[in-house]
Design a protein that fits this description.
two-stranded parallel sheet; 30 helices; 4 strands; about 65% helix
């Protein structure tokens, strides 16, 4: 519990553990106290009959869980109205039968699919939406690419998927560009085709609306590129080159915006379980001169990190880039690792890469990484773990050695950090992990009296604000790094002596805590050999 950052919800299923159920009522008051102190929440599942015994200690917090029928779940989430989708809801094959056997989350999904769908949806199209939700290959893509579309129509279908929401002129231009890429592979399209834009777009009219440049099935666009990639391996090289050109030079196709393109690249990489495909695109985009493209590179990296299939591969590459890459690429990695979604899902991974980036040879990268350490790392680490993190940052030969005092000052002067120290000082004062001793050992190994004095002043100022009793214990903690180390003792004593005299603006308790530390240091014996 102590090592988790920020508000956290724990879920514990004890519904089959009768031995625990007989003891839980005795533990509830203590559990509630700990949860309140650490900003945690706990959900415990117990047998229904046992809930009565907890009513006294958990008044208003006991709920009975039951599995509702799929019909009731659907009715609760369906918002489109009785007059909508009459044909769909009357279909035994596509609606009634799937709903009867649906688990509640699936029944909710069926309702939400209809809520988002166009009102002219047919039962067959609804069946395609359900297939997509279940991860099944869209049947209509097989039929269209196999029989219904000629080469020109296939190019337009792929372009529409990549650039959905773009104007017709942009889609046709992109389709012609794709044709130019793949012509050598046997996908021949006559560039002098004299059909008009509207006439050409109508080739995919059964699945695509020209009026707003969107697929009728809101999920079908996500399936086109992965389907083509899997079914037509001879198109992969040209398709990848074409996507690179779209991502790098969107103006070439007169596109007013990127639309769905980055998400479609992510969908392709995810479905193919191919992190390299996403990473190669993101790397090129990160080095673009256009800030919009660089921002999309970060979004691609974050999406990749969060996916269970390609995430490990993306994280490994981010590790490599955090150690050695160009400044633009490393800045993209900083932004990705500093994204709240990545920090929340894998704090250790994200902050390890941020630590490497804070030691980058590129000054702009170092500044961006240090900003993440100051402003975001404390939100995802407990105060003790944050100090342990700073101790690791101060490894010899690191650029961060000189920066850590400033980082420490900014973080521990923050009102939120002080509030956390005041609400739960026991964790800090206890230092069961040894992180605080490690932090002070690194600080006192620096041959820089001003540096040590600045850190100690910040430490004692924070100690003065958490109250007399815990403040005294906190003030004495730097001394734990001294025994057996006469250099550390001398450096800490010198810093403490400079701070023991009352200073303008200092709290009275702050000066007293400094004097208390000095007294403790005089009591420490160091045996010289």
């Amino acid at each position: 519990m102590d090592r988790k950052g920020g508000p956290v919800v724990f879920v514990l299923d004890m519904s089959r553990n009768t031995e625990f159920e007989t003891e839980v009522s005795k533990l509830v008051p203590r559990i509630k106290q700990l949860l309140d102190r650490h900003e945690r929440y706990l959900v415990i599942a117990v047998e229904e009959r046992f809930g009565v015994e907890l009513e006294g200690d958990c008044e208003g917090s006991i709920f009975t869980l039951r599995c509702l029928t799929p019909d009731r779940v659907f009715e609760h989430y369906y918002k489109a109205g009785e007059a909508a989708f009459v044909a769909v809801r009357a279909s035994e094959e596509y609606f009634r039968k799937p709903l009867r056997t649906a688990w509640p989350p699936r029944a909710r999904q069926i309702a939400e699919i209809l809520n988002e769908a166009q009102r002219d949806l047919t039962p067959e199209q609804f069946g395609e939406l359900i297939d997509h939700a279940l991860g099944k290959r869209p049947r209509i893509l097989q039929e269209m690419t196999g029989n219904r579309l000629d080469a020109d129509g296939r190019a337009i279908l792929v372009a529409a998927a990549a650039l959905e929401t773009s104007p017709a002129e942009t889609l046709i231009g992109a389709a012609d560009g794709l044709a130019a890429e793949v012509r050598g592979t046997g996908w021949a399209i006559d560039p002098m085709d004299d059909q008009g834009l509207t006439q050409r777009i109508r080739a995919i009219g059964e699945v695509f609306r020209l009026t707003d440049s969107r697929f009728i099935d809101v999920h079908l666009g996500d399936s086109v590129l992965p389907y083509v990639w899997e079914e037509y391996p001879q198109w992969r090289g040209p398709l990848a080159s074409w996507l690179d050109r779209l991502l790098a030079r969107p103006g070439e196709w007169r596109a007013a915006r990127f639309g769905m393109l980055p998400n479609r690249v992510y969908q392709l990489a995810k479905n193919d379980r191919n992190p390299a495909f996403l990473l190669d695109r993101a790397h090129a985009m990160a080095e673009s001169i256009m800030s919009e493209i660089r921002g999309l590179a970060v979004e691609l990296l974050v999406a990749g990190v969060l996916n269970s299939d390609i995430g490990p591969g993306v994280k490994r590459r981010l590790y490599i880039w955090s150690r050695s890459a160009s400044a633009p690429v490393q800045l993209a990695v900083v932004a990705a690792c500093g994204d709240e979604r990545y920090l929340a899902s894998d704090t250790d991974s994200a902050l390890t890469r941020i630590r490497h980036l804070a030691d980058s040879p590129h000054s702009e990268v170092r500044m961006a990484a240090r900003k993440v350490i100051v402003q975001q790392a404390p939100n995802h680490l407990s105060p003790v773990d944050f100090l342990g993190y700073l101790a690791i940052c101060m490894q010899p030969s690191s650029f961060l050695c000189e920066a850590v005092p400033g980082i420490f000052y900014e973080a521990f002067a923050d009102h939120d950090m002080l509030r956390r120290l005041q609400s739960g000082p026991e964790e800090l004062v206890g230092d069961r992990s040894g992180h605080i001793a490690a932090f002070w050992a690194q600080i006192l190994d620096q041959d820089s009296p001003p540096l040590i004095a600045r850190v100690l002043k910040t430490w004692l100022a924070a100690a003065a604000r958490i109250g007399p009793f815990n403040g005294e214990a906190m003030a004495l903690m730097p001394a734990n790094a001294v025994p057996g180390q006469y250099r550390r003792l001398g450096r800490l004593s010198r810093a403490a002596s400079l701070l023991s005299a009352p200073a303008i603006g200092a709290l009275p308790l702050e000066s007293r805590l400094s004097a208390l530390l000095m007294k403790r240091l005089f009591e420490i014996e160091v045996h010289l050999r």
